[in-house]
Design brief:
Layout: H1 3-32, H2 37-40, H3 54-66, H4 86-115, H5 121-141, H6 149-157, H7 160-183, H8 188-206
Length: 208
């Protein structure tokens, strides 16, 4: 198999698994907070098919070819009315997506740090990609722009009146800002925003 194609397929597989973990964490945390909507929709699952979004999957392919590697899964539908503490639980559910990727990265970093030399090259390459993508996905989703998790996190932390104005702005213009961040300068804006913290976490988890 062509090396470029092989690397691309490994990267895509790692990206799909990381997104699956991310969406599963959202669904499980919402269910534990009192909302059974994710369970009824079959989202408390580690089956990637249950979480793939058509447009997000296309973006995975397109941006992976360009080298950026951005994509997203099907959003987990929740009904915050069912939460025991709506404002706090919405914050917690939003946080658990990025946190799940950081936990994944921490585990993989430990494996790579202590068992890396003993791993076969294909396994090592796959784990490295999954490690890097986990961190990148977490940092990407923490950007405070709708529809990313960061927008929900920031909204939950802002004073209520300010949060309402912020939510209204994001409802109107968030997707425009989001698309602009992805495509302006070939994604260099996003790389500039998430690159430094991603580099720091990579060194931290790998013990560099």
């Amino acid at each position: 198999m062509n090396n470029d194609l092989y690397s691309f397929l490994i990267k895509m597989a790692a990206l799909i698994i990381c997104i699956t973990i991310h969406e599963f964490a959202h669904a499980l945390s919402a269910y534990r907070a009192g909302d059974d909507t994710p369970k009824l929709q079959g989202r408390i699952s580690l089956n990637p098919i249950d979480h793939l979004d058509p447009l997000g999957t296309i973006m995975m392919v397109v941006t992976s070819i360009s080298g950026l590697g951005v994509g997203w899964g099907k959003p987990v539908m929740i009904n915050s009315v069912n939460f025991r503490s709506p404002r706090w639980d919405n914050l917690r559910v939003s946080l658990w997506g990025p946190l799940s990727n950081l936990v994944t990265a921490a585990v993989l970093g430990t494996i790579l740090r202590f068992a890396g030399p003993a791993l076969s090259p294909p396994v090592y390459q796959f784990l490295i990609w999954m490690f890097l993508i986990s961190i990148g996905l977490a940092m990407f989703n923490l950007l405070p722009v709708a529809p990313l998790d960061g927008s929900h996190i920031l909204s939950a932390l802002l004073p209520i009146d300010t949060a309402r104005r912020y939510d209204d702005f994001m409802h109107r213009y968030g997707m425009i800002v989001f698309i602009g961040l992805i495509f302006i300068g070939g994604g260099r804006v996003i790389q500039y925003l998430i690159g430094p913290p991603a580099y720091f976490l990579s060194r931290l988890f790998l013990g560099g």
